[in-house]
Amino acid sequence: MITQLLWLALVLAVLSLLVAGPTLRRSAPHVWWCLLGYPQTVLRVLFTWRRLTTVTGLAIPRRPPRAILGEMTVSGDPLKPVPPRLGTLKLRRGGLELAIRLHPGQVPDQFTAVTDALTHAWRVHSVRVRPGARGFVTVTALAWDPLAAPTIPHLPGRLLRAVVGLLEDGRTWALDFRLVPHWLIVGATRSGKSTLIAALVRQLAPQRVALFGIDLKGGLELSLFEPRLSALAATRTEAAALLTGLVAETEARMALCRTAGVRSVWDLPAKLRKTPIVVIVDEVAELYLTPTRDDKAEVAEISVNLLRLAQLGAALGVHLVVAGQRVGSDLGPGVTALRAQLAGRICHRVNDPATAEMALGDLNKDALAAAQQITLSEPGVAVTATTDGQWTRARSVHVTPEQALRVARKHAHLTPPWPGLTDPAGEAQEGIYL
What is the pTM assigned to this prediction? Predict the structure, then answer.
C-alpha cells in the first residue's frame, strides 16, 4: 500500500511539473532546466547518439578479422558502426557538458563540423566543441541564449577586476587587469564598444584606481566620465603630453621597486604602494594618422610611449585599454607592435576583415570566423579570448549615458589628482591588491 502511494505521488509530481513547465520556463528558467530541461536533454543525447554519429560519419565500423586460405581472403560482414564513447553528462547553469572519447584517427574539427546537427537533434540553443584532454573533446550544450538580455549579479568588488557582462555559457564576463594587464577592444559604430567601455568604467569607478582618458573625438565619448578621470586628453598634443607624463610615472615606479629590491609594485610594503593606473584610449587610429609632415614626430613619440607603457606597465600597476573602430596594420608598424603587447582581445562587429584579423587572427582562426558572423541585430555581442587559450562569445550589459555620468559623479571624490596621484582618501591601501 505504501509503495503504491509513493508511486502515485511520484506520478502526480511529474505530471504537475509537465503542466507547469511552460510557466516555470518563463518565470524561473534555471529551475526549469534543473527539474525538466536537463533530464529531457540527457535522454535525447543517449537515445540519439548512435544514430546521430552514424549519419554524420563520426561512428567507425569495426572491420572483422580476415582469414587467408590459400590464395583467397575470407572476411565476414562488417559489424555495426561503433560511436565515440560518451562521458558523464554534467549539469551546468543553463546547459550541460560532456567529454567524448575520440576514436583513433579522429580530430576535434570533425565534431566542430557537425555542431548544427547536434543542436537540432538535442533541441538546444547551441552546441560548442573544444579540445579536451588528449584523445577527448569537450562538448557544451546551452539550453537558451544567455546573451539575449544579460544581467549581472551584484558581486563584491576586487581591485582592478571589472564584471562587464555575461559569457555565452552563463558565467559572468570579467576583465581582470591583474590577470591580463592590457586589452584591445575593436568594434564598428553601434557595435557595443562604447557600452563596454562604459560598463568597465562603472565597475572601476568605486575602486581606488586612477583613470585616464585619451579621446581624440574631442572627448565626445569619455567626457561622460570626466568627474572620475584624473586627466582627459582630447587632442593629439594633449595625448602626447599625457603619455609622456605617464611614462615618467612608470619610470619612477620602476626606480622605487629597484630601490626596495622587489620586482613589482604589488610586492612593495603597503605604505609605499602606488595607486594603480588604467589608461583608456578611444579611437586609437586617430593617434597614428599623419595629415601633415609636421605631425610625424608627434605620432612617433605617441607610438613609442604607448608601446613603453604596454611593455613596462604590467608589473608597475599601469594598464592600457586600447579601443577603436579600425585597427589595422595599415596604420603603421607601431600599431602592430602595440597589438603584440595587448594580451586581452575583444572583437565586436567590424566593418573590415583587417580589424578582426588584427584583434583575433593571431589567436584562433575559429574565433576570427565567429567574430565576422556577428550581425547588426546583436549590439554588444563580442568574441573574446579566455584565460585558458580558448575563445567565447560574450555580451556587455547596457549602460546608458545618464548611468555613466551618475556613477562618475558619485565616485568623483576617489579621483586622485594628476600629477602626483595622491590617494584622495589618504588611507593605507594594504590588502586591496590581493
Answer: 0.77
